[in-house]
Design a protein that fits this description.
The protein is an alpha/beta fold and 592 residues long. The protein is built from 26 helices and 17 strands. It folds into three domains: 117 residues, Phosphohistidine domain (Glucose Oxidase, domain 1), CATH 3.50.30; 109 residues, Orthogonal Bundle (Enzyme I, Chain A, domain 2), CATH 1.10.274.10; 318 residues, Phosphoenolpyruvate-binding domains (TIM Barrel, Alpha-Beta Barrel), CATH 3.20.20. Bound molecules: phosphoenolpyruvate and magnesium ion.
Length: 592
């Protein structure tokens, strides 16, 4: 299709990582816009000049990063993003500096060239690492190298220099650049690289800028000043849209904004059905920076803090103080009635940063989560001690992941109480009402739920893993996603058993897998009488709306009918038809 100005219209599909729609002008962002030149120094006399130039650029980069950090703190009232701290650390890294200076001296080359050689050297080292996540961390070193290079070439920070609003198109963006975008009020961005869990995506969500990543070659297909639409919800980018397309997307954008506003109204009220059945609503977070969004979107507590994220990007294991300061940011915080801290779930598709651990890991069914903690008890105790100390400041729930047998929960509890008693003996305050819970995400845990119930105060169903283990479907393998079915009768029966067993033993039952945040499943979960749903904070308003407009009675009737079907496909069709009819506005606008 060709628009009025003769430019070809086309649509690119990527991964929507931060929802919302924006229409604007593209701005191609090349971190090497500064034009890197490579040359040999005319004579050795110039070496010390060149080294000074490099050090001055280091200082300038540090200043800029600190500025971003401070502006973020002022603007968002958030703790500065830890990723920026990582970049600050790289700037000060002795090996990075020494290698670059050595290249300048030994090869008599300019600083830009020396930086490039240092990055190449790091890349060689990282390429040898087997672990994909660690391999990807080269990007942080590259970002820092690019920043210094920009400063060597006159200090133009391209993102900062974008006048007014625009949509950034880039091969990849550093988290610091993304944070800078919030300060500059950039409208949205689209990149060649990246996935849902890349740091840049996480930052984009935290700063609420619509974004699509993983477009592979958008930088080759779009030019600065092209008209562009970013649909961060659908993961689409429309380039050179025709007037009709702009009209349609303008409508969608308005609709999205009104819907967000409307949903926020539901967010402030509790999730109580019309016949007075109340569900507690938690937010799932990976970073403490997400707490303000969780509160503003209606989270009443934190239902899942994925603490393994504390371990990423670290050269060494986090200290007790680091753990503690993270937990203090969610325990006893205004607006949050409880904080559920899940002990770290490293392994499987989760990342870890200590290369020593990498060799130990098997994917998914390996030495992950609680299994790993019970092997590395000292490391586990550091985290438990910090959780116990934080519990003195507010309602704390501790939760153990991937428990498959009774010994694991008993042993985890034993270690926790040992740590807690030791703190008490030393006069260090700890909370006296800490609740202990277990994630139900392995089928064996469902089968022995009655036994596990004797050990804990609450269950939290982790459907992401439970479904993958129950249906034998790798949750990250796109070739079998068609079989990943939360409405599979086997999955529904497993969930029903957990809730029924939990309730008859007087144990609260929460759900914190992705299923809990999917509006289409909410009435089924209500019918099962779930006590708490915890989800990605942005999903909360819609879920609350469905609960507030339903009744327990009709949910039970729906569930009863659904439980008579033997086919997942039939259940899916029935549930979606029901929900479409019951909430026409809700389900039509979302295309589900
Ligand atoms: C789950 O498995 O459902 C869960 C919430 O844990 P995670 O997604 O972190 O594995
Ligand atoms: Mg899990």
């Amino acid at each position: 299709m060709v628009d009025d100005a003769g430019k070809r219209s086309f649509v690119l599909k990527g991964i929507g990582v931060s929802p919302g729609i924006v229409i604007g002008k593209a701005h191609l962002f090349d971190p090497f816009d500064a034009r890197v030149s490579f040359y040999r120094l005319r004579d050795k006399e110039l070496i010390s000049e060149e080294t000074k130039r490099f050090k001055a650029a280091l200082k300038e980069s540090e200043k800029q990063l600190l500025e971003v950090k401070n502006r973020l703190r002022e603007l968002a009232g958030q703790e500065p993003l830890y990723i920026i701290d990582v970049h600050l650390l790289i700037l000060k890294d002795k090996m990075f500096i020494n290698h670059t200076v050595k290249y300048i001296k030994d090869l008599c080359i300019n600083a830009e060239w020396a930086i490039k050689m240092t990055i190449d050297r790091y890349r060689e080292i990282f390429d040898k690492v087997e672990d994909e996540y660690l391999k990807g961390r080269i990007s942080d070193i590259r970002y820092v190298g690019q920043m210094i290079t920009r400063n060597l070439a006159g200090g133009k920070d391209v993102v900062r220099d974008i006048a007014g609003k625009g949509i950034i198109i880039a091969a990849d963006l550093s988290p610091a650049d993304t944070a800078q975008m919030m300060i500059n009020k950039v409208q949205g961005f689209a990149t060649d690289m990246g996935g849902k869990t890349s740091h840049t995506a996480i930052v984009a969500r935290a700063v609420e800028i619509p974004a699509v990543v993983g477009l592979e070659s958008i930088t080759k297909m779009v030019r600065t000043n092209d008209d562009i639409i970013i649909d961060g919800s659908a993961g689409l980018v429309v380039v050179n849209p025709d007037p009709e397309m702009i009209r349609v997307y303008d409508d969608k954008r308005r609709h999205f904004e009104i819907a967000q506003e409307n949903f926020l109204k539901y967010a402030r009220l509790p999730a109580v059905t019309k016949d007075n059945y109340r569900v507690d609503i938690g937010g799932n977070i990976e970073f403490i920076e997400e707490v303000p969004t969780a509160v503003s979107h209606g989270a009443e507590g934190i239902g899942l803090y994925r603490t393994e994220f504390i371990y990423i990007n670290k050269g060494q294991l986090p200290t007790e103080e680091e753990h503690f300061s993270n937990y203090r940011s969610i325990v006893g915080v205004e607006g949050l009635n409880w904080a559920t801290i899940r002990t770290f779930d490293l392994g499987g598709d989760k990342f870890y940063s200590d290369p020593k651990l990498a060799k130990e890991m098997n994917p998914q069914m390996g030495l992950r989560a609680i299994r790993f903690c019970l092997k590395e008890v000292d490391m586990f105790k550091v985290q438990l001690r910090a959780i116990a100390r934080a519990s003195a400041f507010g309602k704390t729930r501790i939760m153990f992941p991937m428990v498959s047998g009774i010994e694991e929960i008993r042993e985890a509890k034993r270690i926790f109480f040992e740590v807690k008693d030791d703190l008490v003996a030393r006069g260090i305050p700890v909370g006296d009402d800490i609740e202990i819970g277990v994630m139900i995400e392995v089928p064996s845990a469902v089968i022995i739920a009655d036994e596990l119930a004797k050990e804990v105060d609450f269950f939290s169903i982790g459907t992401n893993d439970l479904i993958q283990y129950a249906l034998a479907i790798d949750r990250i393998n796109e070739r079998v996603t068609y079989l990943y079915e939360p409405l599979h009768p086997a999955v529904l029966r497993l969930i029903k058993r957990v809730i029924d067993v939990g309730h008859s033993a007087g144990v609260r039952v929460a759900m914190c897998g992705e299923m809990a945040g999917e509006p289409a499943y909410i009435m089924i979960l209500l019918g099962l009488e779930i006590d708490e749903l915890s989800m990605n904070p942005l999903a909360i308003p819609r879920v609350k709306k469905i609960i507030q407009e339903s009744t327990l009675k009709e949910s039970k009737a729906l569930l009863e009918k659904v439980m008579t079907f033997s086919s997942a496909a039939v259940i899916r069709e029935f549930v979606y038809n029901y929900m479409r009819e019951r909430f026409p506005e809700e389900f039509q606008t979302n295309g589900t």
